[in-house]
Design brief:
The protein is α/β, with parallel strands linked by helices. It has helices at 2-15, 27-38, 53-59, 75-78, 82-88, 106-115, 138-151, and strands at 21-25, 43-47, 93-98, 122-126. 44% of the residues lie in helices and 14% in strands. Strands 1-2-3-4 form a four-stranded parallel β-sheet, sandwiched between helices. Helix 2 (27-38) links the parallel strand 1 and strand 2 (43-47).
Length: 153
């Protein structure tokens, strides 16, 4: 998936003379962050994102089961880290999470947002929505448009 994401970006970049952002939702946010880590983008949008697979798995274990559950990730999953990718991205970022997201809890998105070094980066907690449907909310649409307009300044 990572190589496909880079090839798609390279193809679109070759055909796009203007600004180009990368936007990924949920699992796609890992690919968008990977592209932003390995290519120069004008911005990145991570929607319903998580910091890394281990944090995500731990966040989805009920509190009462945590003492009894151990998690072991494959080596390929251990190296996937949106926080590390964010630290290397220099352009502005927009991280949008649903307030009621139980799949990728908001604190995982906050962790990713905190790693972006660009002061123009933004975090948006979208009210009254879970994991899917963030972009259906007017709050998210307004923030998204403002973010894109801000890239032209």
């Amino acid at each position: 998936m990572k190589q496909d994401a880079l090839q798609i970006y390279d193809h679109i970049r070759a055909k796009t003379p203007g600004k180009l952002i990368v936007h990924g939702q949920s699992l796609g946010s890992f690919m968008a962050a990977y592209v932003a880590q390995n290519r120069v983008t004008d911005g990145v949008v991570l929607e319903s994102t998580a910091s890394n697979p281990l944090d995500w798995a731990q966040a989805n274990i009920p509190w009462y089961a945590r003492p009894f559950v151990g998690i072991e990730l494959s080596p390929d999953l251990k190296v996937i880290d949106n926080v590390a990718a964010a630290r290397q991205h220099r352009a502005p970022a927009l991280v949008m999470v649903g307030e009621q997201d139980r799949t990728t809890p908001p604190e995982l998105g906050r962790k990713v947002f905190a790693a972006f070094p660009n002061a123009a980066s933004q975090f948006l907690l979208v009210h009254d929505v879970g994991h899917n449907g963030v972009m259906k909310k007017d709050q998210a649409k307004t923030a998204y448009c403002a973010f894109l307009i801000g890239l032209d300044k």
